[in-house]
Input
Amino acid sequence: MSDATALPVRGLPHGIFTAEPRFAATGLFLGLSLALTVPAMLLDPRLFQGEAIWIKPVKFQVALCVYMLTLAFYARWLPEGVTRRPAYRVFSVVVVAAVLLETLWIGGAAMFGTASHFNTEIPAMAVLYMVMGALAVTLTSASLVYGLAIGRNAAAGLSPALRLSIALGLILTFALTVPVAGTLSAMNGHLVGDPVTGAALPLMGWSREVGDLRVAHFFATHAMHFLPLAGLGCAALLSPLAARRAVQVTAGLLVAVTLATFVQALAGLPLLPVF
Output
């Protein structure tokens, strides 16, 4: 496997902090903060809507930790000098602030025993919900900025197929997540329908009785991981032209799957129904 094909993993922690120290430090902080919320989840017996009240903060900490570390990893392929520009520095600080405020908001709601999402009955929480929605779009926009920049950077030192897969994965993370998450936030919850037994897919927790918008949200937000992995395989196994075409087809399939699961959920149908 050539250097232009492989994703470098040697010296990975140092490389991440060198390329984008703000995002890397934020990801590390979120990971370390689990030392507070995981014990809280184990020791606090309170439930909210049938599940441990601290489960949502933990899930978001993990998700945002992975998101920030992924961006820090991809930052090495940004055009030379981009991270030193004043506009980028301001943008990166805003993204970090949005991530930390989202984490604080969700954790604070759990601490006070109330809902962070879909909480429109309490006026103050309803206003915060709208503000946090804007911050969610802001932090997600970092994937779009990175995708466009890496896609234009022919000097990145990657094979064309791998660079395309990283760029498309990042761009699609933004392009697919915003409408899916926007629709989800405008509803009363992530379920479309009224479950009877509460049957759910193990680990993921997706409903097997009614439509669940979290399925499409999962495929949308992880495009930045799925497509580069596919691009890595394509670049290693196929000719350059065939690899690029394979990446484009894979991107199309990912969009189709995301939209299909989105429409399916809105129709009130589960991904894997209970028979």
